[in-house]
Design goal:
With 604 residues, this protein is of the alpha+beta class. The protein folds into five domains: 192 residues, P-loop containing nucleotide triphosphate hydrolases (Rossmann fold, 3-Layer(aba) Sandwich); 84 residues, Elongation Factor Tu (Ef-tu), domain 3 (Beta Barrel); 82 residues, Elongation Factor G (Translational Gtpase), domain 3 (Alpha-Beta Plaits), CATH 3.30.70; 85 residues, 2-Layer Sandwich (Alpha-Beta Plaits); 88 residues, Beta Barrel (OB fold (Dihydrolipoamide Acetyltransferase, E2P)). Strands 8, 9, 10, 12, 13, 14, 15, 17 and 18 form a nine-stranded antiparallel β-sheet that branches. Helix 9 packs across helix 14. The C terminus is likely disordered.
């Protein structure tokens, strides 16, 4: 058991792709927690399969390293705005944050969000100017921008007097001054010990802790992870769990675990200031208070910013239902979503009034919801997904909608196109600057509705060279109608297998979503029409054969490769009267009239 004065609890926060996970890799390697012959993968903390595939951090992760005679608990947090709920949730466990800012890009939208959260909680961030080895890095300029951001966000005098250091997470070094010789990360370790305060807490007081994250162990069941606020705990000790409604239940600690590097290790006891996982409380929930029986306390609940986007999970009613997945009923879907609701409080899951074949899920953005859908399809679930809708609220009798702060970087020749696009989507430009390298940086305030479906168009309009990131800003009065998708779709009129001859005749009318041999059904969307109206087509049409053969009578069929949607792209693309059919191995688009036909058929 460590004295609280010898413990440091820090979270690493930054905008996406500013190098959090890479820096943490280097911190872990230089803390000598790995064997000399141990194979260490890149982005070692991104253990979840979707994190490795997408190249982003989705869930907050805990680790622990030892430096000199100090114990440093570190939490790696997501950088994408859609997973900001993970950041809000874990900041209560730490006493300082390492704020990473790319020394070339400077502060970005997510930097603003995570920093504002840390400042509101009274934390004093340690600024790490990362990637100083990049060719166009300008650390001094970025340091000035960071100070301006602290001022803008209302930092107090103590917070404005922040410590800072220059680093390269990829090359594993940190330096106090730009003229210093780079060696290793020792200067960063030393700065953490001096600038991060030790956690408050008294080992002699009764035990008190709040569950900040949940885990699951196959042998011991649910695990509650959090920082011990007061006192100490041993394996076998009794404790009282107080839920958000004030209900008290008594339990006994069956297992106590801490972290060492990438592993969870079983420990006998722990004290104030340490971050641990407790087993033995089967119904524990996020925000519940865990306390000693002689001193029962209910701590304030953990509150998160409200979700801004909702989608409906609908029972899959296509003709191909059950071919691919094993969980297809509403009961199975509802059970799985309610299980998710208990572990992920940044999602809001509710019933749809008047419908028993749909359930509504609200989250921070399309990617936030797409990660859940992707997880479920990998578990064998089949479902249909509706078009995302923004969540509005009433303020003084008027409808308000969410708007986002959008940061865009594009080559100068595309800036006019992007400005025109976002203006039509009710966007308001806040800043524009063009660098000597011909790169235009713009900032907009855009309704969340206006960004839906635009990200795919943005990549096309900028030839794949543009960067677009956004973060929720606030709720503002309703901005009026915004134009949706400009083109219609091609809808299959018959079931069967798509035929090369039929598709060859269709590709003149627009872009195809299927290839020869793909199975289609009536109502399935097989392509995008070049015009703004929907058309019904026959993708299974084969060429009529005759006994007569003549030279040159057969056309050479050359098909353009079909457009393949990822889950996020499909959700982004569909219109109000369309659904995305999601199964373990397929993503299909279809019209909603299939559901209406089935409903009428069942009512008979």
């Amino acid at each position: 058991m460590y004295d609280p004065k010898k413990i440091r609890n820090i979270a690493i926060i930054a905008h996406i792709d500013h190098g959090k996970t890479t820096l943490l890799d280097s911190l872990l390697k230089q803390s000598n927690i790995f064997r000399d012959n141990e194979k260490i993968p890149e982005r070692v903390m991104d253990s979840y399969d979707q994190e490795r595939e997408r190249g982003i951090t989705i869930f907050a992760k805990h680790t622990c390293v030892y430096y000199k005679d100090f114990k440093i608990n570190i939490i790696d947090t997501p950088g994408h705005a859609d997973f900001s709920g993970e950041v809000e949730r874990v900041l209560g466990m730490v006493n300082s944050v390492l704020l990473l800012i790319d020394a070339q890009e400077g502060p970005m939208p997510q930097t603003r969000f995570v920093l504002s959260q840390a400042l509101k909680m009274g934390l004093r961030p340690i600024l790490v100017l990362n990637k100083i080895d990049r060719p166009h890095a300008a650390p001094d300029r970025v340091l000035d921008l960071a100070f301006d951001l602290f001022l803008e966000l209302g930092a107090n005098d103590e917070q404005l007097d922040f410590s800072y250091i220059y680093a390269s997470g990829f090359n594993g070094f940190a330096i106090e001054k730009l003229t210093d010789e780079p060696k290793d990360l020792s200067p960063l370790f030393e700065l953490i010990l001096t600038a991060a305060p030790p956690p408050p807490g008294n080992l002699e007081l009764p035990f008190l802790m709040q569950a900040a994250t949940l885990g699951y162990d196959d042998y011991t069941g649910r695990q509650a992870t959090g920082r011990i606020l007061e006192g100490k705990i041993r394996k076998g000790d009794p404790l009282v769990c107080v839920d958000r409604h004030g209900k008290q239940t008594t339990h006994r600690v069956t297992k106590l675990e801490g972290h060492l590097g990438l592993k969870k290790i079983e420990i006998e006891d722990a004290g104030a200031g340490d971050i641990v996982s407790l087993s033995g409380i089967p119904e524990v929930d996020i925000g519940d208070s865990l306390c000693a029986p002689e001193n029962v306390v209910q701590l304030p609940p953990i509150t998160l910013a409200e979700p801004t986007v909702s989608i409906e999970f609908v029972v899959n009613t296509s003709p191909f239902v059950g071919r691919d997945g094993k969980h297809v009923t509403m009961n199975k879907l509802r059970e799985r979503l309610m299980r998710e609701k208990r572990a992920n409080i940044s999602l809001k899951i509710e019933e749809v009034e008047g419908r028993d074949d749909a359930i509504r899920v609200c989250g921070r953005g399309e990617l936030h919801l797409a990660v859940l859908i992707e997880t479920m399809r990998r578990e064998g679930y089949e479902m249909a997904i509706s078009k995302p809708k923004v969540i509005t609220k009433q303020v003084d009798g008027a409808t308000h909608e969410p708007v986002e702060r959008v940061h865009i970087e594009v080559p100068e020749e595309f800036s006019g196109t992007v400005i025109d696009d976002l203006s039509r989507r009710k966007g308001e430009m806040r800043s524009l600057a063009t660098s000597e390298h011909g790169l235009t940086t713009m900032s907009f305030i855009v309704p969340t509705r206006g960004l839906m479906g635009y990200r795919n168009d943005f990549l096309t309009r900028t030839s794949g060279l543009g960067i677009l990131t956004s973060i929720f800003e606030s709720f503002v009065p309703w901005k009026g109608d915004i134009a949706g998708r400009l083109r219609g779709v091609m809808i299959s009129n018959s079931p069967g297998k798509a035929n090369g001859y039929g598709l060859f005749n269709l590709q003149e009318r627009g872009a195809l979503f299927v290839k020869p041999g793909d199975e289609v059904y009536e109502g399935m969307i097989v392509g995008e029409h070049a015009r703004d109206n929907d058309i019904v087509v026959n993708a299974t049409k084969a060429k009529q054969l005759t006994n007569i053969r003549a030279a040159g009578s057969d056309e050479n069929i050359i098909l353009t490769p079909p457009r393949k949607f990822t889950l996020e792209q499909a959700i982004d693309y569909i219109a109000d009267d369309e659904l995305v059919e999601v199964t373990p191995n397929f993503i299909r688009l279809r019209k909603t009239f299939l559901n209406e036909i089935d409903r009428k058929r069942n009512s008979r």
